Amino acid sequence: MTKPDSQTGEANVAAPPVSGQLARFARSSKLLDWAIVLALLAVMVVGGIASPHFLTVANITSILVASSILIVVAIGQTFIIITAGIDLSVGSLVQVSSVMIGVAVTYKLGVPAGILMAILMGTLFGVLNGVVVSKGKISDFIATLGMLSIASGTALVLSNGRPVSVISPLLTSLASGSIGPFPNIALLAATVAIIGHIVLFHTQFGTHLFAIGGNHEGSRNLGLKVGRIKVAAFAISGLLAGIAGIMLTARIGSAEPATGSSYLLNSIAASVLGGTSLFGGRGTILGPVIGALVLMALLNLMTLLGVGVFYQPIVTGSVVIIFAIAYRFQK
Amino acid sequence: MTPALSTAPEASAPAAAARKMLEVRNVRKHFGPVVALDGVSISVEAGKVAAIVGDNGAGKSTLVKILTGVHQPTSGELVFDGQRVVLHDPDEARRIGVETLFQDLAIVDDLTIWQNLFLGRELTWGGPLRLTRKRAMAEQARQMLSGLQINIPSIEARVRRLSGGQRQAVAISRAVGWNAKLTIMDEPTAALGVKERTEVENLIERLRDQGRTFLLISHNFDQVMRLSNEIWIMRNGRVVGHRRTSETSGDELVALITGAKSAEIGIRT
After folding, report:
1. CA separation for the pair A82, A205 (Å, rounded)
2. Which of B68, B94, B104, B130 to mutate to test the interface with A (most CBs of A within 10 A)?
3. Three-class SS of residue A315?
4. How is chain B split into domains, by residue range?
5. What value does the mean pLDDT take over residues A210-221?
6. Alpha-carbon distance A15 to A1, whole Å?
């Protein structure tokens, strides 16, 4: 990475000097591109030293399983953040999708029908988000904040506020089956990640997502269908929240109207940790995947070390803020 | 008012027979009670550079937005390359051959040069996914730039790394490189230093000499005098004058723009 003078000037405008040398060092290297990978390695090394159980196959497998749902939600969130937007409704969409499986069980429609309903429900709410944002011309922040409330209310209404136990060989196989050493649920997350990567980096739609996030007005002037592209991005985020709802139901064995709210903050955290710019126009799929792994590995390690559950959100939040500050120095 | 009348002072000029790439006929644009364009008629000859000058608020930007399909005129018509056209959106304008160099360049910093050149007209394998043909696009982009004799270190570089003049060159390439029939340039050098401005002007001159058609919107009279063949002067949403560049001077343009010299055309309605 070269550093012509003009760029140094630009970067200074974007990031007021904190410590000149640190900033220059961060700018002059590719270090920050690899920050999240280094963070994962650091957690592994520290964890391996601190706890003999941390690097066992069983524990690593359980980290993978625990990360899977977050990975899927974070990928959806990343599609939105790349357009310089935010989707605050993802957690509620996970809930309402999970509840759809409970509804299917309650009305004896069968779990496969419930799975389909969960996917449709997530996608439908996602499309609604997109239409409200692009046709209603209000900010994603407000639109999806409203949808957060509507979706979690819908989940409560449909479930009457009660969890429904879901017993299904299909979901059991998703939750605890594996192919070789790889848990099925992690393979599902990996599949979503691969498809997400292809869509983002090898399709016209993906290019246009980056363009809209990088230069909204310019994209419009060049004739990109900004509205339609945003609707599609929110539909993807909703679809993935629906899939995450299915995964969650499989994991806990019941459709619960009140779990899943943690996915909102954690999906944004994983995405930002993975280098997605909240200003839009920049991001990857691999980054947020590793970001989710780092978050869940940290939580896992804290549990192993006996750090109280109440401390965990404090650590998670601090890590996210530190990374967000570090990324400010990136060009 | 007929278009013929609106260009009446021009009738003696030999260019009357020249082929018009663009004719704007009596276009009005209202935003609610505000009249932004009050019956504007201009034309652009094929293979020439026409310029529009005028003070802030004269209606230049609104006219550009109508020509690029961002706004639709309240009344009046556009004739492009001999055919009456109605532009519903920017994509439609680009498809018929009107490309624009926007004031803010409409460049995306974090995309590569070739991605910027192909923005909105990516080559794909079709199908529902529209997988992109990256290698073909990079190769064509390289040919486009070398055809325009533009020196850019690497087609794969992100635009963020380019200098101001290079960014401008990428945006200009996109605005002429797609066999555009008409390239609209909205303040093409407003944000550039002296050296970069000269480079960009040289590029425009070279393209003009190759027979490209331009509509130039500029505050810079020197630039307008250097680059254009004819000049339309706007004030308060109207065309108040039309000159051959060879037959006018910067002083006369200032007088027409400010209204110190009374308007000749376009205000009889």
Report:
1. 12
2. B130
3. helix
4. 3-97+181-258, 112-171
5. 95
6. 18
A130 vs chain B: nearest CA distance in angstroms?
20
Chain position carrying tokens 């070739």: B114
The partner residue sitting opposite B132, judged by closest CB among A6, A203, A219, is: A203
- pLDDT for B153 equals 80
State mean pLDDT over B137-166.
Answer: 88
At A183, phi and psi to the nearest 5?
-65, 140
Q: What does chain B come to in residues?
A: 269
Q: Is A161 exposed, middle or buried (0-12, 13-18, 19+ CB in 10 A)?
A: exposed
Q: Give the pLDDT confidence score for residue A4 in this predicted structure.
A: 39
- Span B82-124, pLDDT tens digits: 999 999 999 999 999 999 998 888 999 999 999 999 999 999 9
**What percentage of chain A carries pLDDT values higher than 90?**
77
Strand partners, B49: B214
Angle at A112 between CA A111 and CA A114, to 5 degrees: 60
Residue A201 DSSP class? H
Q: What are the Cα distances from residue A274, in Å, to A9, A61, A269?
A: 26, 21, 8
Q: What gap in Å lies between CA A276 and CA A211, rounded to an integer?
A: 14
What six digits make up the tokens of B77? 């018509």
pLDDT at A25: 53
Rounded Cα distance, A196 and B122, in Å? 19
- A217-221, B207-211, B260-264, range with the lowest pLDDT: B260-264
pLDDT of the residue at A325: 85
Q: A147: buried, middle or exposed (CB in 10 Å: 19+, 13-18, 0-12)?
A: buried
Ramachandran assignment for B37, one of left (phi > 0), alpha (psi -120 to 50 degrees), beta (any other): beta
Residues in chain B with CB shorter than 8 Å from the CB of A331 are 160
CA B216 – CA B185 distance, rounded (Å) = 5
CB contact (8 A) between residue B161 and residue A282? no
Which positions in chain A touch B105 (Cβ < 8 Å)? 218
Per-residue CA distances from B8 to A161, A212, B3, B40 (Å):
78, 45, 9, 14
Q: Where are the beta strands (DSSP E) in chain A?
A: 164-165, 178-179, 182-183, 254-255
CATH number of B3-97+181-258: 3.40.50.300
Side chain identity at residue B219, one-letter code: H
Report DSSP letters for B73-110, one per residue: -SEEEEEETTEEE---SHHHHHHHTEEEE-TTTT--TT
Determine what percent of chain B is predicted with pLDDT higher than 90.
Answer: 57
E strands, chain B, in order: 20-31, 34-45, 49-54, 75-80, 83-85, 98-101, 182-186, 214-217, 230-235, 238-244
pLDDT at site A23: 57
pTM for the model stands at: 0.87
